[in-house]
Amino acid sequence: MARRRRFVSDVAVPLLAFSAAVPIAAAAGVAPASGAPARAAAAGPPTVIGVDNAPPAGRNWVYTHYFPETGVSVPQGGLILFKWNTGSTNGLHTVTLVPNGSTEAQVRQGDPTFVRDISNGESDTIIPPPIFNGTSQTCGNNRTAPPCTFDGTAVVSSEVIPTSSGAAYPVQIAPTTAPGTYHYICLIHPGMSGDITVVPAGQPATDPGTLATEAGAEYNQLNSAAFAAEAAADVPVSTANADGSRTWTVRVGLTVGDVDLLEYLPIHVPIRKGDSVTFDGSGTTQEPHTVTSFAGFGAGYGFFGAAQCEVNGGADTPAAQVQGPPATGCKDPSTYEQVVNLTNQGEQNTITSGATATSDFVSGRADTQALGGSTSHTYKFPNNGRYVLVCSIHGGMFGVVDTPGYRVATSTGGVSSFGASAALGAKTTGLTSPVVASPSTLDDQGYWQVTADGHTYNFGSAPNVGNIGRHNGSPIVGAVSTIDGGGLWLAAKDGRVYALGDATFMGDSAGAKLGGPIVGIDSDGSNGYDLVGADGGVLTFGASGNGSGSSRFFGSLGGKHLNAPIVGIADTVSGNGYYLVAADGGVFTFGDAAYEGSLGATKLNAPIVGIGVGLDPLHPGYTMVAADGGVFTFGSSPFLGSAAPASPRNSVVAIN
Ligand SMILES: [Cu+2]
User: Fold this and answer.
1) Which of the four pLDDT bands, split at 50, 70 and 90, describes residue 322?
2) Where are the alpha helices (DSSP H) in 299-422?
3) Model's pTM, two decimal places?
4) How much distance in Å is there from the Cα of 280 to the middle of ligand 1?
5) 445-453: long-range pairs with CB below 8 Å, 24+
């Protein structure tokens, strides 16, 4: 974003990283069991039932649903393969078969998702060991173990398995199982269940084509309801307070039938300072969520506490932080348990800056409420700024509250402010070379001016990150902040990248033959950055690798004919795409960047020099600025005014 709007891109990737660090996400030490064990061959091919599903593009949804849940017949002696869907990044489920003589409620009561652990004077809320271990350690949980056998007389349960693992859980229906309909459930999600009908041996299983048709029909029906509910909730709603401020409502997660929307709705709320926002989790009956600031992560706030091993008659011991519980977290895997924080952790109810460390838990789940968890939480925002709140449980789940505004920077150090973006100072005298970039911090309460010779000047909450010593001559052309606002990456025309402050150097193109001079840099939202050349060539650097082989490379214009040179790059919120903008206002989209229009057919008084992208993936938008101060907005990005440079020799260079 050119910093400004690109902040968003800084958001989503850390989320995923946080999620991956969460013990429960790694909990299933299940090796994917692909294919049916050989011994089942006599009963014919297995009946495959999907667990969860891949959401439509751009949606962060989890399906508390098996595909299909109805219309499945299996003969006595037959084999069922429950297959977790790799396309669901946040799913976490069990398959638990309910025997004759038991009800679903009885099985859930016997194996609850959350319990109080008060043995030995402790007072923790935990996800208990049986959830992680399933009913047997010797069947079903790896490709060499035999399938687990269900004979209709006892519970058979997989361990909890992350959907993204794509694992499979094979269940053999014993030849002695009484014909009839059996119920199976997920122990994590109170509304997730399906049915199978056991028919006498020799009768056919439901054929794969029929299963696929039924699964597809269920998927489509669920999606159409979820899209409708999402659209209805994706609207900013507020009420007036006596003091003139407003209180806004954001839904944190939403259960729509068997689809759980892991989304803040609306994702973006444009407030005025002094307003409050109520984060309401009452609409989700299946999932827990948090509303956590980035600083809150640093302070250790979040849903999950430390994993531990239950000790009989003594204090619990910490689980080893190794490859992944339960297999290796505890000496005896059957003692592995996960501590969770369902209640307020004592943090602030007011968020004043990006450094405010806070988190709260919200959910409409009945069991968490019974254990003291809340359904909603209200934060007050007394200052102007941009505040990103994330769920510490679910990757890619975040919301943005901001007081809309932007700043336009000129080559001689001028800064013009629009909307609620405060003018915090400017270095207009004594510059040893022109200003070329002006990245802001994520919370918009600080920014830097960066000059062609590598000097940086910091304002507001932006820290002093120093300068490039004895810069070798190739001028700096762009700069971008790290997500925590503690550092800058500077890009030079020759492809060199300089890391200042807490920024990590991930590689550059120094010495490489470039198709054109480098003109811009943006961050992918984590430890990576992308360079763009005037020829439209894109070079990516980061943890997932460098160059066109990296998963962060989404294409480029290198080698293609251009009507005008490229002048800037802006990554999308997710980091899974980017925009390139040309001097004539042409816009080129890659990856998940959404096209919202361009100036390619418009006659401009001055060339475009920069682009920033909006924070709301459901409502994409971007803003361009021209050298004469003209500001052009597209999609959801608000127009708050244009700037005019003080003189022809004082051209606009960036918008943030
Ligand atoms: Cu969540």
Assistant:
1) low
2) 366-370
3) 0.88
4) 12
5) 445/353, 445/354, 445/383, 445/384, 445/385, 446/485, 447/3, 447/407, 447/415, 447/656, 448/479, 448/481, 448/488, 449/409, 449/413, 449/415, 450/476, 450/479, 450/488, 450/490, 451/476, 452/476, 452/477
Domain membership flag for residue 513: yes
Pair (155, 278) in one structural domain: no
Q: Please answer whether residues 328 and 29 qualify as being in contact, where contact means their C-beta atoms are separated by less than 8 angstroms.
A: yes
Mean residue pLDDT of the chain comes to 89
The type of residue at 181 is T
Same domain, 497 and 520: yes
Secondary structure class of 33 (helix, strand, coil): coil
Ligand 1 center from residue 455 Cα (angstroms): 41
**Distance from the CA of 638 to the center of ligand 1, in angstroms?**
29
CA of 99 to the centre of ligand 1 (A): 32
The domain that holds 150 is classified in CATH as 2.60.40.420
Choice between 348 and 59, residue whose per-residue pLDDT is larger: 59
Q: Determine, yes or no, domain membership for 71.
A: yes
The CA angle 481-486-490, to the nearest 5 degrees, is: 40
Q: Is the pLDDT of residue 9 over 60?
A: no
Residue 66: which of 255, 171, 193 has the closest Cα? 193
Q: Please give the angle made by the CA atoms of 614, 624 and 501, to the nearest 5 degrees.
A: 65
Closest CA to 536 of 587, 595, 491, 489: 587
CB 25 within 8 A of CB 19: yes
What total of structural domains would you count in the chain? 3
Print the domain residue range for 550. Answer: 3-13+402-655
- pLDDT at position 138, please? 86
Choose among 491, 490, 483: nearest CA to 525.
483
- Here the contacts of 117-123 (C-beta below 8 Å, separation 24 or greater) are 117/310, 117/316, 117/337, 117/339, 119/310, 119/312, 120/311, 120/313, 120/314, 120/315, 120/316, 122/315, 122/316
582 and 646 share a domain? yes
Span from the CA of 18 to the centroid of ligand 1 (angstroms): 12
Contact 538, 553 (CB under 8 A): yes
Identify whether residues 376 and 438 lie together within a single domain.
no
In angstroms, the CA 330 to CA 27 distance is 12
Q: How remote is the CA of residue 25 from the centroid of ligand 1, in Å?
A: 12
Q: Do 479 and 598 belong to one domain?
A: yes
> What share of the chain has pLDDT > 90, as a percent?
72
354 in a structural domain:
yes
**Whether residue 206 is found in the same domain as residue 262:** no
Six-digit token string for 80? 């069922």
Distance from C-alpha of 556 to C-alpha of 535, rounded to nearest angstrom? 9
Angle at 253 between CA 248 and CA 255, to 5 degrees: 125
Task: Give distance in angstroms: CA of 290 to centre of ligand 1.
Answer: 6
Residue 298: left if φ>0, alpha if ψ -120 to 50, beta else—which one?
A: alpha
Answer whether 520's CB lies under 8 Å from 531's CB. yes
Cα of 526 from ligand 1 centre, angstroms: 20
Beta bridge partners of 66: 51
Q: What is the mean pLDDT of residues 90-103?
A: 96
Looking at the predicted structure, is the pLDDT value of residue 323 above 70? no
- For position 7, what pLDDT does the model report? 26
Residue given tokens 């309910």 in the structure block: 98
Pairing of strands 148-150, 168-173: parallel
250 and 202 together in one domain: no
Residue 371 and residue 484 in one domain: no
481's tokens = 């902040």
Q: Is 232 within a domain? A: no
